[in-house]
Amino acid sequence: MSKDIKYLVLENYIGGKFVPCSKLIDSFNPSTGTVYCKIPDSGPEEVDAAVRAAKEAFPDWSAKSPEARSKVLNKLADLIEARLEEFAQAESKDQGKAITFARNVDIPRAAHNFRFFASSVLHHTSDCSQMDHMGCLNYTIRCPVGVAGLISPWNLPLYLLTWKIAPAVAAGNTVVAKPSEMTSVTAWMMCQLLEEAGFPPGVVNIVFGTGPRAGDALVSHPDVPLISFTGGTATARLITERSAPYCKKLSLELGGKNPAIIFADADMEQCISTTVRSSFSNQGEICLCTSRIFVERSIYPEFLTRFVEAARRWKTGAPTDPSNDNGALISKEHLQKVKGYVALALKEGAQVHCGEGVDKLTLPEQNAGGYFMLPTIISGVKDSSALMQEEIFGPVTCVTPFDEEEEVISRANGVRYGLSATVWSRDVGRVHRVARKLEAGLVWTNCWLVRDLNLPFGGMKSSGIGREGGVDSYHFFTEVKSITIKH
Ligand code: NAD
Q1: Which of 287, 337, 390, 391 to mutate to test the pocket of ligand 1 (most atoms within 8 A of CB)?
Q2: Which letter does DSSP use for residue 297 in this model?
Q3: Residue 206: which H helix or E strand, with range?
Q4: Contact 33, 371 (CB under 8 A)
Q5: For a Cys-Cys bond, which of 57, 257, 371, 413 suits 417, CB 3.0-4.6 Å?
């Protein structure tokens, strides 16, 4: 690298001010493989400063009416929307995702998160006993918890960070947030809008840095009573251990190994186009992506042929080209890990139908060093294989036939994860029966990723603890208090 190259240098946002950090780390553009920005390598000192600022801001912010807080959140949503294109370009460059996806999904949803929680916080009610119990009136109130620690991953950077910040501050908490060290730019851009939106200093603080340093300092800070974490199951285990001595309130949104179950009576056309999307959107880097596809044996050959044809039409290339569906994977290491699963499949005797090692990926010259991979479909894999058990988190999906309803439910449930599942059938009774028996926090039937933010979101088993969304976020980000008045 030439010494003349000027990088974007990010600063922490603490107490309403941008604060430079003495140590910086490189952040890469995944579609070129080059460093393009430097982010703070924050540690306990920076995190402590942010927690102090958040603690100081808490009494005033929590005392404001929900209406006053709601106004600020709505204003921030307006400001993000007004800069949608700027944010989308930055997200695409930072994460590697296709610009069209950032424009249509990431940034609109980030703005919507603020708008949604600005509204929902106005409609919560609490309980009051109707009965005179031993001469007493009983009722409940909900109070914000204090300083919320929020940690988010790299796959949907601003989308998932705002999914935490919005409900936390709407409910009256102040926050210290740490985005993924691999995708910090849009969070930093959002900090530039907070004052104009009307957030008093210290209500939203963002520290940038790695998990083991900045993330760990936040999790183990004694003045942060609540942690909302989205990321990998292994990291969640560490977070649980580190927060145990303080009995912190935890919400853990983790990985998945999501099945799609396709019955012979499914609307094939709709099922194939949706299953391509559910398997490969955002390079397969969505926790809800389908990675095991069970197809009823009578339609298996037809499904596989048409599914492969449709996957080949899913375009991978420069994220800046709006005609591309997929861009680059997040990092060189991650690309190698994902490709490693394809190599393992071949070693185990499976068939790779398209994508990695089968089709040729042509890229523009400036993207030659990027971390790209084509949508890859594999069959002939045993349920016990790592390909069917581990979260791959890339554009790889496995297809397998099944014969009976009970058999497929048991196979779909035969993993340690339980985040989401998709069921395809036009038989209403079956759809209800299967959905009830699947071990998953979310079951979509004849669709995928249709999200009503009022619904509880989260997983069971190793996919997480707790639910967020609508009233569940409100409950998580508040403490309930039972009050008894003797009259
Ligand atoms: P990750 O667990 O490596 O990192 C997530 C965040 O945790 C990052 O900000 C990271 O810096 C931080 N972190 C890492 N080590 C830490 C530590 N010791 N203490 C505190 N913080 C720490 O996950 P990732 O690779 O960024 O994201 C991919 C994972 O996230 C996948 O498993 C995916 O399924 C999951 N995910 C889940 C959901 C969901 O809603 N269930 C959504 C998106 C992604």
Answers
A1: 287
A2: G
A3: strand 204-206
A4: yes
A5: 257
- Residue 232 Cα to ligand 1 middle (Å): 4
Residue 167: alpha-carbon gap to chain centroid: 15
Residues 6+ apart with CB under 8 A from 403: 296, 297
At what angle are helices 185-197 and 66-82 packed, to 10 degrees? 130
Query: Residue 2: which pLDDT band, with cuts at 50, 70 and 90?
Result: very low
pLDDT of residue 487: 81
Within 10 Å of residue 158's Cβ, how many Cβ atoms? 30
Is the shortest distance between the CB of 455 and ligand 1 below 6 Å?
A: no
- Looking at ligand 1, which atom is closest to the CA of residue 464? 41
Report whether 2 contacts 38 (CB < 8 A): no
Quickly list H helices, 292-448: 300-313, 332-347, 386-389, 405-412, 428-437
Predicted interface score ipTM higher than 0.95: yes
The answer to pTM > 0.80 is yes
Which of 46, 91, 181, 253 is catalytic? The answer is 253
208's CB contacts (< 8 A; 6+ apart) are 10, 12, 21, 39, 40, 42, 178, 179, 181, 184, 187, 188, 214
Q: Please work out whether the CB of residue 276 comes within 6 Å of at least one atom of ligand 1.
A: no
Question: Cα(377)–Cα(398) distance, rounded to whole angstroms?
Answer: 6
CA of 168 to the centre of ligand 1 (A): 19
- The finding on whether 421 has its CB within 6 A of some atom of ligand 1 is no
